[in-house]
Write a structure and sequence with these properties.
Elements lengths: L1 H13 L19 H4 L2 E16 L2 E20 L2 E15 L12 E15 L7 E17 L5 E10 L2 E5 L11 E18 L4 E6 L3 E10 L4 E9 L3 E10 L1
């Protein structure tokens, strides 16, 4: 059931109606055309969260959750973009609670990315590519529940400042790809959550908010990108995504 719901979600989010005309008539102008889509991107992906949390005074409790997501982004400027999306989660550990995979709610997230600085390097050939510094902020809402009625909801705010290097050198890359962007930098992630069994409610938050972000985006062509990233605080979290820029 959950897979069916998420398939419908991604189909709805990633499909755009290009023509709107009554049956029997043909309109010359489309509601949207290629030029109006060139600032838009769509993405789908998977995220794993593994974090130490503080709950009931225990700073070593564990949060482990899996999330599927789909998003839509828009380039407001050449160096800035905003995005928003929907996600669905399950947790296999939250404090002393085990499997929480009964919830079918759809949650949401939104963020902003800004390219602060970039430098195109041409020599030596091994480092032929673009160096960059960017900043991003994201807010995401997650929920999970188990069969007994125990429910959890948590919000995560992430601020990152990665340094990137986008390589265009054939010697470093397989000839079948256009380029690859390698990035790493500091990240702050704040968790604000609550878990309830229907009668009592307990708040929880992150045990460590400062970590390291690292990852790679592989540009298969000018439009299609696949990538993965990891975050380390007190344990590793990671995600994978595929993105298409119109």
């Amino acid at each position: 059931m959950k897979a069916t719901h998420f398939s419908i979600l991604m189909l709805t989010l990633c499909t755009t109606t290009l023509f709107a005309a009554p049956m029997g008539r043909i309109k010359r102008n489309a509601l949207l055309d290629a030029d109006s889509l060139e600032r838009w991107s769509v993405a789908i992906g998977y995220e794993n969260q593994t974090r130490e949390i503080t709950i009931d005074g225990d700073p070593t409790a564990r949060l482990r959750a899996d999330t599927l997501f789909a998003s839509l982004s828009y380039d407001v400027l050449a160096n800035a973009s905003i995005y928003a999306g929907l996600n669905q989660s399950s947790a296999d550990r939250l404090g002393t609670v085990g499997e929480m995979d009964e919830r079918e709610d759809i949650d949401w997230f939104a963020g902003f990315q800004l390219n602060l600085w970039e430098y195109m390097n041409e020599s030596p050939d091994m480092f032929n590519g673009r160096f960059s510094l960017s900043a991003s902020i994201e807010y995401a809402n997650y929920t999970a529940a188990d069969a007994s009625g125990t429910e959890a909801e948590w919000d995560v705010t992430v601020i990152a400042l990665p340094i990137g290097f986008q390589s265009f050198t054939g010697e470093m890359l397989n000839k079948t790809v256009d380029s690859a962007l390698f990035f790493a930098g500091p990240v702050i992630s704040v968790i604000d959550g609550d878990i309830s069994d229907g009668t009592t409610s307990t708040a929880f938050d992150e045990s460590n908010d400062l970590g390291i972000l690292f990852g790679v985006d592989v540009f298969l062509n000018e439009n299609f990108v696949v990538g993965g990233q990891g975050q380390f605080y007190d344990d590793y979290s990671y995600s994978f995504s595929a993105r298409y820029h119109f």
